[in-house]
């Protein structure tokens, strides 16, 4: 396991009582190079060091990642005062590509979580005063539900604890092995 992943496992453990430590910011760019950033929920990590996120193919992040798979994750753990910045390459998986993976994540959601995917098109105008209607069935994975796998290419880690603070850079060498370098913060 790479050194940074051992550190991340520890950060998640130390902050396990704080739900907000499971949220991180995911930045993408559109076709003109304009950056967009939003909060998403960390849903786990694969054996291949991919961060797992669930989302909706009708959101901006989907079309942006389809055109440019490069993304950055910024994740701050306020209790341990650590920041991880991950440079990532995204792969988006829908039910038509891997029904088992997508179903596995859909089935983990509560009914309240599933509901959010059945309210209609995200980002389109909402009529004042009308309740949002559920379109679809909780037992069936909606075609727009997707899993985003963010393969970590490099890591910029900063720990604000201590004087001086510590910063580390992690990336893969030509043989695919992770190498680390301490940096001036
Ligand atoms: C705490 C929090 C957690 C969120 N988690 C997710 C998530 O896991 N997946 C997701 O697609 N959107 C999530 N959102 C909503 C996104 O931040 C964003 O508003 C939405 O996905 C539309 O973004 P986009 O159109 O830029 O893609 C979350 C928002 C908040 C505030």
UniProtKB/TrEMBL annotation:
Domain Pyridoxamine 5'-phosphate oxidase Alr4036 family FMN-binding: 1-93
One Pfam family named in its UniProt record: Pyridox_oxase_2
Signal peptide: none
GO molecular function: FMN binding
Protein's UniProt name: Pyridoxamine 5'-phosphate oxidase-like FMN-binding protein
């Amino acid at each position: 396991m790479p050194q940074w992943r051992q550190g991340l496992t520890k950060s998640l453990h130390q902050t396990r009582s704080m739900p907000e430590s499971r949220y991180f910011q995911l930045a993408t760019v559109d076709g003109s190079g304009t950056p967009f950033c939003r909060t998403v929920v960390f849903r786990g990590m694969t054996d291949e060091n991919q961060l797992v996120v669930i989302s909706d193919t009708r959101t901006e992040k989907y079309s942006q990642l389809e055109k440019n798979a490069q993304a950055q994750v910024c994740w701050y753990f306020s209790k341990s005062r650590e920041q991880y910045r991950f440079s990532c390459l995204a792969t988006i998986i829908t039910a038509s590509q891997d029904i088992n993976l997508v179903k596995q994540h859909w089935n983990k959601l509560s009914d309240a979580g599933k509901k959010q995917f059945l309210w209609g098109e995200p980002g389109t105008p909402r009529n004042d005063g009308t309740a949002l209607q559920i379109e679809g069935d909780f037992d069936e994975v909606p075609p727009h539900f997707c899993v985003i796998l963010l393969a970590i290419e490099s890591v910029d880690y900063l720990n604000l604890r201590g004087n001086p603070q510590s910063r580390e850079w992690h990336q893969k060498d030509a043989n695919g092995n992770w190498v680390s370098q301490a940096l001036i913060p």
